[in-house]
Amino acid sequence: MLYTQFVAVSIAAAISATSAYPIDGQGVRCHSGPGTEYSVVKSYNKGDLVALTCQAVGPSVNGDSLWDLTTDGCYVTDYYVKTGTSGYVTKQCPSGGGGGSGFGADIVNAAEKEKGIPYVWGGGGCNGPSDGGFDCSGLTQYAVCQALKKEIPRTAQTQYDSSLGKRLPRSEAQEGDLLFWAEGGDCTNSVAHVGIFIRDGLMINAAHSGTPVREQAIWTSSGGESICPDVVRFW
């Protein structure tokens, strides 16, 4: 029995050793997407072990263009991950590099590329920012247009109501789904804001005057607006 337990533990250790890789650098940043243009989620130190979910192609770092999605939900350049090879050691991430649907990841990536663009009420659409910026629904329309080559309605309420998408409970949200907020919680008549779901607790949006397109925590209620119970998925 003891021998059997020892063998089982040894096999488990071997599996763990082959699926986790050491970081070869100090303060190596892990980003929300496959590239340094994405926000920093956390940092790793030399010797930290990371397990990989998938790998994606992104901007080259010292000649290595692979980016590794770790089980922490962020991407680190493969250059600093000692996998023993410059090639793939696990599956390729879906199109757009995200861990969920490739289409959803493409929507997020399209929005991420606009980070820092100012908020402008009524700004933006399928062709990009207008009058120098985006408002909330201008950004979401742009991201979906770019990712899916499909034009969705322009305002937050009409996006929530659109027959082009499907409503799902917020608990089932995936990368690229649209989140909505309504005045007084009246999602039938008074949707006032929309953002793009990245992962649990995090979204990207054009929030209000004075703030640029940015990632931020998903909030449930503020200023008389409450989050709607459903998300809308356009793929």
UniProtKB/TrEMBL annotation:
GO terms for molecular function: cysteine-type peptidase activity. GO terms for biological process: proteolysis. InterPro entries: NLP_P60_dom (IPR000064), Papain-like_cys_pep_sf (IPR038765), PG_Endopeptidase_C40 (IPR051794). Pfam families: NLPC_P60. Keywords: Hydrolase, Protease, Signal, Thiol protease. Transmembrane segments: none annotated. Residues 101-235 form the NlpC/P60 domain. Residues 1-20 form the signal peptide. PROSITE patterns: NLPC_P60 (PS51935). Belongs to the peptidase C40 family. This is NlpC/P60 domain-containing protein.
